[in-house]
Design brief:
three-stranded antiparallel beta sheet; mainly alpha; rod-shaped; 255 residues; two-stranded antiparallel sheet; 58% helix; 7 helices
């Protein structure tokens, strides 16, 4: 039997190596199997909640710091909303339009004048209350101004419409007055011509027209003007009979 010394100076019998020799002969590893490491257990619900609260707290601190830096320099304006977004793209066809990702929730959206950024900040549940209220107040001021401008525009349009209507009515009156004046002038000229032709055709002396206000010529014209529309002058039969007798009798009364 073969013997060998161990580390402590003792003797090892050859039978102690029989298993090793057999393992080497079979081509297997005679070393002891490795002990598996303990697997990492997933966090509990309480741990996950605590971690989420810490993350939200850090996020709120960053958002409030951005807001504080903005208002420390100048009053908050709509363009400041882009500071709460990470710009990921500038549109090639529109240099003023930007595509940004919210630094709180990561949502991406496009905006030209920051109006959509402001609307998102007001509704985003991960942005601090102080920041959302500041932008909500800013949006209300902007909406009130826009509403005032719309009302002023409507009032201006109404005033312009009323002025145009009044002007059109005045122009219509002036036009009608002008037409009426033209008609009156034409009617007067036609009446004068008819009277003159009556004088010419009947060989009436022109001096008859120069009689005083109480003369028969002017009295005749005044009486004709006072008659109602549709008046028909007497014909030769009435003048030579009925009216001749009537005028004769009246002349006797005045004598």
């Amino acid at each position: 039997m073969m013997c060998a010394a161990d580390d402590e100076g003792g003797l090892l019998e050859s039978s102690d190596f029989d298993g090793v020799d057999a393992a080497l002969a079979d081509g297997t590893d005679a070393r002891p199997a490795a002990v598996p490491l303990p697997q990492r257990q997933p966090p509990t619900l309480l741990e996950a909640s605590a971690r989420a609260q810490r993350d939200v707290g850090v996020l709120h601190t960053k958002m409030l710091a951005i807001h504080a830096e903005i208002v420390a320099v100048a009053p908050l304006v709509a363009m400041d909303a882009k500071e709460f977004f990470r710009i990921v793209e500038h549109k090639e066809d529109n240099k003023h339009q930007r595509r940004g990702a919210c630094k709180a929730c990561g949502k991406e959206l496009c905006s030209t004048a920051s109006s959509r950024f402001v609307a998102h900040i007001i509704k985003c549940p991960l942005i601090p209350f102080e920041v959302t209220q500041a932008f909500k107040a800013l949006k209300k001021i902007s909406d009130d101004k826009a509403s005032g401008k719309r009302e002023a525009g409507l009032r201006a349009e109404e005033e312009v419409a009323q002025f145009a209507k009044k002007h059109a009515a005045e122009q219509s009156v002036l036009k009608q007055s002008g037409i009426k004046a033209c008609l009156v002038g034409a009617e007067k000229a036609w009446a004068d011509r008819c009277i003159a032709e009556f004088f010419y055709a009947n060989a009436i002396p022109f001096s008859v027209a120069n009689s005083d206000a109480g003369g028969l010529y002017k009295r005749m014209i005044t009486a004709i003007k006072a008659t109602p529309a549709g008046y028909k002058p007497p014909n030769h039969q009435r003048i030579s009979n009925e009216l001749l007798d009537e005028c004769y009798n009246l002349s006797l009364i005045h004598i």
